[in-house]
Amino acid sequence: MKVFINNKEYEAVQNETIIELTDRLGIHVPRFCYHKHLSVVASCRMCLVDIEGINHAQPACSTVLTENMKIFTTSKKTKSAQKSTMEFLLINHPLDCPICDQGGECELQDISLEYGKDHSQYMQFKRVVVDKDISPLISTDMTRCIHCSRCVRFGEEVSANKELGLLDRGEHMVIDAFIESGVSSELSGNMIDLCPVGALNNKPYRYKARTWDLSQYEAISPHDCIGSNIYYHTYNNKIIRAVPMENSNINQTWISDRDRFGYEGIYSNDRVLKPMIRENGKLVECEIQTVVESINKNIHSTIKNKGTKEIGCLITPQSTSEELYLFQKLFKGLDINNIDHRTNECDFGYQDNFPIMPSLGCDLKDIDNYNNIILVGVNIKSEFPVLSIRLNAATKIKTKIFSLNFDSLNENFPLHKKIVLSPDELIKFLNTKNNKSKLNIGKDDTTLIILGPGISQFNNQSEILFSIKKYSDSINAKFGFLTDHCNSTSAWLLGALPHRNVVGMKNKTPGLNAYDMIEKRLSSYIFFNLEPENDFWNNISVIESLKLSKSNIFFSSFITPAIEKYADILIPITTFAETDGSFINIEGIFQSYKKIVKPSKSIFTGWDILNELLKINDLGNYSMNSLRKEIQENIIDINLKSNFSLRDNNKKPKENLSKVFKLTKRETYYSDPIVRRSPSLQATMQAKSSHIFISPDIVKNIGADNGIEIINDSINHKINSFEIKSSLPINTIVYPSSTYNGKLVGPKSGYINIKS
Hints:
By secondary structure, the chain is an alpha/beta fold. The protein has 22 helices and 35 strands. The strands form nine sheets. It has a seven-stranded mixed β-sheet with strand order 14-13-24-23-22-15-16.
């Protein structure tokens, strides 16, 4: 279709609007209310343009192009209309640019310089809007608001959390939350980015710096497996803000609040600042070379006296690909095969038949191509908020979403069917023909089954996996995963496993898995950025193992009570922001980034320390470039988007419904060491939820007026405060996290005995 803009001929697409074409061509048209990912309301009228044959200027955002349409974006008529609109928008604006955090990147400020008048015809008093405390993450200055409604539309259309709305009419109109502190969505921070005038501000960042004083660095989300692209802004070598970096294939223009505010945890008071060695029962500071030599001496001493099988090496899948690769290379090079990253699991019966790595099974951008999506053991809204945006959009096209979960969770997209089941009931459900028909999914439908990290903590994980795989084959469905941390895919692929080496090669002398390493009470443990209290399936058992072992070596960014008490060697390592690194997301996309801030002189990059140990043992020597090159050469021929394949292990599901089943809730803002130290995130409603929930039948069967006593091998305590939750499966109790009231709660799942 042929159109003319400023007397130049261009080709347009059918049903394309003027503003879509001008944006595509790089022709500037001012706007406030328009955003490419939101519906068109044409409320601000700033995008008015002159169209030949039409008396009045028309909004470019809502005017659809027609054949031979002649548009003028710089004509006198266009400029006059835009200047009049600008004058109207500034009538009630407080003009407080010197104290506004939006200054320097404010759309209203920028446009007013070009289109504003040197004086206003309005001489009356300006209105003032009283601000509310709507969130610990967002501060408000609603007197600045120009009613573009971007924030309202984002809540209604994108995040599907209708938390802000337009109240009253005319000059009394305000945008507000319906209740105090009512904005609690895991995507709420995106409204700050959308606001063009500084009415909604980043509360932790407020008054910290001016835009022009900031340095910008590209990075990747270190908190979940989606791999969202992020800009980190620094001031005086400190991260003070995070904003989304657009990537249409992954996170579009959005990021989760966990990605936006999690960086605060880097600056926690419990950072490890110096290398330390235990002497006379106390950790004392020492030089880095002394620590490296001590680590090497300690490892070789254990090998000589106890053998390689008495050393357990555990690493977090939140580590960079470079750290994961060198970690396994070092210890497998020393013939130590007890290496694992799956610290939140206890059942590993699936591992020999597992694919080369967990993957989603499709590209994120293609997720709306499926007729059906079945979610198993995952709360998308809480754990993977950026993915929830795509799923919400998919439901508006053709996709039906089903949920098979262990609790009745409120997602921010419509569910076609929701079924709440215990782990044992899920296996029964999938293995029974009549039950499966409840989903009413045919072989001719395109179906994707997404398995969340929620099942990984169950002691019958393997049976669940095999049952789901069998069911997926019966309906010709694709099968994919969402993993626990940002780099689990890389951990599998790069051999941070006891039974496999790099790119899935079978280890001829497989070692112990993470659970067995802890339960067998080995002589020596090496923990890489793991916290005993929070990052293991059974934290009580971990503490016991540390207590009994002869040597405990910790590579850690933070110090916890358990580390302080049981570490024999403690070496401070950088967080993701203080080192060059790379992650592989759940699509199999390899993404790298540069160091964002310089660490303290006495804090060292994890990969550099591992490399130093490699050098000492004549196992290699790398620069960052040569290391990354070797990693990429290893994975270059691997199909990183391969579909899940798994053979049935012929095991029968366990029957054990006589006791109460204990679950530990996966707390989004407690998921990794950095996030759990972010003051802003810990102040949110999600983080403050610390209730124990029990199913109504438990109260009915045993009575619980005076509380419930838990009696088990590893835990024995009384619960006086709890909430009854009718949506839970029968005989179920849900703990809020790995600790409760400061006490360790033991296994993350399993059957327990209780009494009133």
